[in-house]
Amino acid sequence: MEILWISTFLVSGTSVELTAANQAEIQVYPGQSIQEAINTASPGDTLIIHEGTYNEKLVVNKSLTIMGVDKEEVILDPTLETQIIIQTTT
After folding, report:
1. CA distances from residue 41 to 8, 22, 71, 72 in whole angstroms, order as listed
2. Residue 2, domain member (yes or no)
3. What domain range includes position 17?
């Protein structure tokens, strides 16, 4: 029997919903930091990025799913010096 825990709480201004086992869905809204959500997330978590323009450098150094709610409305703007670095382990 799998136990499913559903709860919503606030972590550093980022909404986190626990969905099953130790995985969580972390909601990121305009004005919040995607990098802060990445830092807060545990491996296997899913980040849901909501409509807006995000101007920040991102370092992804763990196994995460990062999804935008709408590819036309979630913008990582490189003209605003956005940089994404994905670190892998071997």
Report:
1. 14, 11, 22, 25
2. no
3. 7-86
